[in-house]
Structure formats: C-alpha cells, structure tokens
Amino acid sequence: MEVDPVSKFKLLVPHLKESLVNLMRIAGQNLVHNAAIDNQLKSGDNPSQRVDKNLEEFYSTLDQIELNLRLAQECLTQHQESVRHAPLPVPIMSKPEPSGEGQTMPYGQFLGLARSQVTCAKEIHDALVRCADDLGGKR
C-alpha cells in the first residue's frame, strides 16, 4: 500500500513530537546530572541514556518529514504543469462519454499532444547540445 507524501507527513508528526519530548527529557536529565557533578554532589559516572542517540532519532524523523514535504511540493508542481500544458483531462473510463460535454480530451488527441511535447523536448535538447558544443569548441 502506497501512502501519499502528505499522509506520510501526518503520520510522522506525532513521532517527531515524541522524539522531541524524549530528547528534551534526556537532555534535561543529563544537564541535572552534569550540574550535580560540577557541584561535587555526584561522582563522574555516565548517565544511562545518551543525548546523541536521541538527537540522531529526532533528526532522522525530521529528515523524513522534509523529504515527504519536498515530494508533496514536487507532486503539486507536476500537477500544475500538467494542467497548464494539457488543460483538458483525459478520460480514464472504459466507456466513452456522451459527446457535447467538451470537458475531456479524446485519447487520440491526447496522444498527438504528448507526441508534440516529446518532439519539442527533443528539439530543446538538441539545441542545448549544439549550444554546449559551440561553447566547448570556442574555448
């Protein structure tokens, strides 16, 4: 089962909160422990839990959230670009809709649009390659 990036983000936020609470609790315990050592109330024994391990868990969850938000942003951008370049949706139904609606693009027309976009992309690629070759040859 694939989960969209926004849902994954929503699932990770409680884990991030829990991780932050654990990090702050352990950091506070270490601070109290180190203060007691500085005031010579305790010996220099090591505290049971390490801050760096919890900090790493916090940053790991934060990185996952960042990646999911970037992915969601990329999906939105891709959707906006597809709406701009192919403004009419392609019907996915197996039965054709009654004509006269004008809200969808026939599959054949969509194929023509896709071919023209691929041709345009190839032309742009070729122009960029020629430009790079010209610049490379002049140096």
UniProtKB/TrEMBL annotation:
The keyword Transcription regulation applies. One of its GO terms (cellular component) is mediator complex. Keywords: Nucleus, Transcription, Transcription regulation. It holds the Pfam family Med29. It is found in: Nucleus. Transmembrane segments: none annotated. Its main location: nucleus. InterPro entries: Mediator_Med29_met. PANTHER family: MEDIATOR OF RNA POLYMERASE II TRANSCRIPTION SUBUNIT 29. Belongs to the Mediator complex subunit 29 family. This is Mediator of RNA polymerase II transcription subunit 29. It comes from Branchiostoma floridae. The lineage of its organism: Eukaryota, Metazoa, Chordata, Cephalochordata, Leptocardii.
